[in-house]
């Protein structure tokens, strides 16, 4: 529908469109905030680094707040000419999303559970129906009501007692991922009086319907370090400490096995795992160690019958193998092989059913779902027919069933939830994501997977999508994305939001760089610790390949990444700024050395095996050689847009704030360096279903403005 606007606004739009370049030049004359320099010498291993902006670390200091607010004001002034466009982009993206949507129900313990949204409301309703989907709806939680009066709200799911009468749930009102656990009587709707502060938000029920286990966080570092036991009707102050993880490089967690037979406490670091278990019948039994931790030994467990099934890298099984062991003899010398290690197949996960074992694998970067019968009468893979898809097993809580629920989507294909009969091999699409607006047809978009050659000869895969009318003549704008850390794989998945760029002529490319596990565990090993720079050079070499093969040009190439992916962006523009016209760095981890030397910051000690411990000189020197903040020197930087959240518990706000100040100080180009700090948000951004779209509208307006696209 054509928007009706006042004559004055039409006149301003006309003047702006006729003289947009001049308007942009005028906004460039707006003076950016001047961050005061207060040099602090940081010495380690006889090396001195001078940090002029160390003072920004003082959270809640009036001078810091003032600086962040001035940055936001500067951003608003320089982007004033895009504000209406941002609103249009937001409405466009929101318009593709079905507002009154609902998840596919799943059945557990006599009830069907699902989540739904209502038109005009930004938060979900968690619901259930007894016995049949035709039964009366019971609203367990209405997050719209619960979020009223709060700038930020997030519920960390919920867990239901075995007798279906009490729900435990966690709420975060600050965005520091510190949740308060509460309990709700589902028969009366009453909230119980006890509140458990500073947790991960999840509670695990014993089968006695009165005992729950939960994880508490360290107040300063936010490391998950303690497992407590709470009995309903008692004071949380009297809760019993069940386990404490004293190794600062480990986090701990607790869950119940799918068989509902055991409560399991896990401890994990980047390279090492440990599990202990106890009966779920009540909260009175002690925990038994399954296999004591050994550095470099990783394993995870599932339970079936009278045995534990174990995914592990034991005996140099780099891509993992599957083993099993009796409940009564769980140490590794008792483990026997079920699926052997394979050099070309990464074993990612398993789902256990009464008659079937379902294995999630990855071969040559592609998801595979393998289904086998325990009696060996069947062994086959689900068929998928392209190279830019994502497939994964879904919510499968029912143990005694022939139905496997899995999800599928591709770069040009909306998400589907599918129920697959593992006996008859028939499938039923329970739901396919609706893309509203009447314009989307997947045939209009072209998908490709190409391979770029890195400087050391390694082939790096790239997943690409673009509109069929977009020409590969070197003139198309292209947004290149990557993450590349922690072994986290960015699969090529569908996004209705991304259509906003594709329909305006953008090409979108995911670079599957080393540091993820797209090509197996070794792909991760080759992008961490003292090989971390492979992540950055892979990204740069993919950019060069895209330019050389006429997907785009340096004038029209853009890059984006968030968190550890923001580190990637920061390193890339230090190493090859000339390749990009603009970059977006969201909650970027850019002050690597200082952060990794500060063990009071959340996540630091637990990440020594990812980045290295800079208390060791070799790691210190290597980190310093790529840390974006330490390597921001005089050069012509591209246009840069940096975003963060003031309450971020993973990448503290001061990292991007200091980095932006230093970039501005050393930038020799006339390109814009913009910074926006959401004063109400944390690492995950704004809460609410559609609030995040406003953040994306900022990003997209930044890119489209650089391409002189304003409609």
Describe this structure in words.
The protein is 20% helix and 33% strand. The protein is α+β, with helices and mostly antiparallel strands and 711 residues long. The strands form eight sheets. It has an eight-stranded mixed beta sheet with strand order 30-31-33-32-34-35-36-37, with helices on both faces. The longest helix is centred in the N-terminal third of the chain and has 17 residues, at 62-78. It starts with 6 loop residues before the first helix and ends in a 5-residue tail after the last helix. The relative contact order is 0.10.
- CA-atom Rg in angstroms: 26 Å
Give the overall silhouette.
Answer: globular
Structural class by SSE content? alpha+beta
DSSP, total strands: 37
The biggest sheet, with number of strands, parallel, antiparallel or mixed sense and barrel status, is: 8 strands, mixed
Beta-strand content estimate:
25-35%
Low-confidence segments, given as residue ranges, are 1-26
Percent helix among the residues? 10-25%
Q: Average the pLDDT over all residues and give the rounded result.
A: 92
Biggest β-sheet: strands ordered side by side in the sheet:
30-31-33-32-34-35-36-37
Topology diagram in text:
Elements: H1 7-18, H2 20-28, E1 40-44, E2 47-51, H3 62-78, H4 83-95, E3 106-108, E4 111-116, E5 125-130, E6 138-142, H5 143-146, E7 154-160, E8 166-172, E9 179-185, E10 196-205, E11 211-217, E12 224-231, E13 240-244, E14 251-256, E15 262-268, E16 273-279, E17 288-291, E18 299-304, E19 307-312, E20 321-326, E21 336-339, E22 345-352, E23 356-363, E24 366-373, E25 379-381, E26 389-393, E27 403-410, E28 413-421, E29 427-432, E30 445-453, E31 459-467, E32 478-481, H6 499-502, E33 507-511, H7 521-525, H8 533-548, E34 557-562, H9 564-575, E35 582-586, H10 592-597, H11 608-611, H12 617-626, E36 639-645, H13 654-666, E37 673-678, H14 691-706
Helix pairs in contact: 1-2, 4-14, 8-9
